[in-house]
Amino acid sequence: MRSESGIGDLPTLAQTESGDLFRQRLLDGMAKAIRERGYADTTIADIVRHAYTSRRTFYEYFPGKKECFLALHHRQNVETAREITAGVDPHADLATQVRQAIQIWLSRMEANPAVELSWFREVPQLGEEGRRLHRQYQDAFVTVIRRLTDTDDLRAAGVQPASRQTVIMLLGGLNELAAVMLEDGGDIRDITDAAVDCTLALLGPRH
Questions:
Q1: Please, what is the Cα angle at 84 between 125 and 191, to 5 degrees?
Q2: How far is 50 from 45, CA to CA, in rounded Å?
Q3: Which of 202, 179, 178, 182 is CA-nearest to residue 192?
Q4: What is the pLDDT of residues 79-112, one digit of tens each?
Q5: How far lies 82's CA from each of 13, 57, 72, 91, 179, in Å?
Q6: Who's near 38: CB < 8 A, 6+ residues apart?
Q7: By 3-state DSSP, what share of the chain in percent is helix, strand and coil, each rounded to 5?
Q8: Average pLDDT over residues 165-191
Q9: Rounded Cα gap, residues 182 and 2, in angstroms
Q10: What is the four-CA torsion angle of 110, 77, 21, 39, rounded to 10 degrees?
Q11: Long-range contacts (CB closer than 8 Å, 24 or more residues apart) made by 20-29
Q12: pTM, full prediction
């Protein structure tokens, strides 16, 4: 089933936000704890302290820290895809669309660098559940990018809908570029031009 946010089987942002208030507070508490201590050193005590709630409440929603962490990133992915889908002008030329999408993506990283870096480096280490969420994210954004490149206007400009293989290569490169910049503590917006150029090279008209 395709959601209104264009990200496959992930819930829409409205569905995410309509969840119990305490669950959302716990996810926010996890994000604050990651910014303060990093995921590895975060404890459930840290999460509930930032969420202004109790351990008992935490265990009503999550069996452990890992599940709360994965739920946070699930929410992050839903929000990112929604913002990109809403913020990219589908009638603009490809270069404009790509720059709009890249700028939205990077602005979210700039707002939460520690949380975003934990997605790149720590989620994949969480066994099958972490790998499944990464794959879900990948499949969802393949859908978003293929939809954005499959328009009459772009076809007229010589742009063909991106293949799944091409989008997977693109996402892998962009994610690693962003992760390295976040690890180095640089300004994430400094990769904008490189990210746009590489994306255009992969998605642009074939000659």
A1: 65
A2: 9
A3: 178
A4: 998 999 899 998 899 999 999 999 999 999 999 9
A5: 7, 29, 16, 18, 22
A6: 114, 118
A7: 75, 0, 25
A8: 96
A9: 32
A10: -60
A11: 20/61, 22/51, 22/53, 22/57, 22/60, 22/61, 23/61, 23/71, 25/51, 25/52, 25/53, 26/51, 26/53, 26/57, 26/58, 26/61, 26/62, 26/68, 27/68, 27/71, 27/72, 27/75, 29/53
A12: 0.86
Cβ–Cβ under 8 Å, residues 133 and 73: yes
What would the DSSP string read from start to end of 90-127?
TTS-HHHHHHHHHHHHHHHHHH-HHHHHHHHHTGGGSH
pLDDT tens digits for range 31-88 = 999 999 999 999 999 999 999 999 999 999 999 999 999 999 999 999 998 999 899 9
* Residue 149: CB atoms within 10 Å: 21
- Quick one: which H or E segment has residue 39? none
Six token digits for residue 138 = 């990948």
What is the amino acid identity at position 149?
T
Residue that the structure tokens 């992969």 belong to: 202
Q: Which amino acid is at 51?
A: A
